[in-house]
């Protein structure tokens, strides 16, 4: 098993959270494991889009697929990911509109 650095872990987490659909999937799975059909319906996204985003989250190591007979359940790869999401949601950001007014600005949030 490969050992990854802290910066790699944060990079994977950042990549996952950089897409609103992936962030919503993670937040939904934080509450409880779910099946793809239920996730697609709950989030209001197509199954194809959900599948692509779940593949990305699996590749980042944030979610795992658990086979259950003919179905597959998805859940967070580690309960600590749910705690990390809760901690991130509790952070209060002070945004400087002078620098982050335009999301298209390179390096800007």
TrEMBL record:
Q: Which Gene3D superfamilies match?
A: Winged helix-like DNA-binding domain superfamily/Winged helix DNA-binding domain
Query: Which NCBIfam families did the record assign?
Result: HTH_metalloreg
This protein's name? ArsR/SmtB family transcription factor
Question: Where is each HTH arsR-type domain found?
Answer: 1-96
- Alphabetical list of InterPro entries matching this protein: ArsR-like_HTH, HTH_ArsR_DNA-bd_dom, HTH_Metal-responsive_Reg, WH-like_DNA-bd_sf, WH_DNA-bd_sf
Database matches in SMART domains: HTH_ARSR
């Amino acid at each position: 098993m490969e050992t990854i650095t802290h910066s790699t872990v944060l990079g994977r987490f950042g990549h996952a959270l950089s897409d609103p659909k992936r962030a919503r999937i993670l937040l939904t799975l934080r509450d409880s494991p779910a099946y793809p059909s239920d996730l697609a319906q709950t989030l209001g996204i197509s199954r194809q889009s959900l599948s692509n985003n779940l593949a990305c989250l699996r590749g980042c190591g944030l979610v795992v697929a658990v086979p259950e007979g003919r179905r597959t359940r998805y859940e967070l790869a580690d309960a600590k990911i749910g705690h990390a999401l809760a901690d991130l949601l509790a952070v209060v950001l002070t945004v400087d509109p002078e620098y982050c007014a335009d999301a298209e600005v390179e390096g800007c949030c």
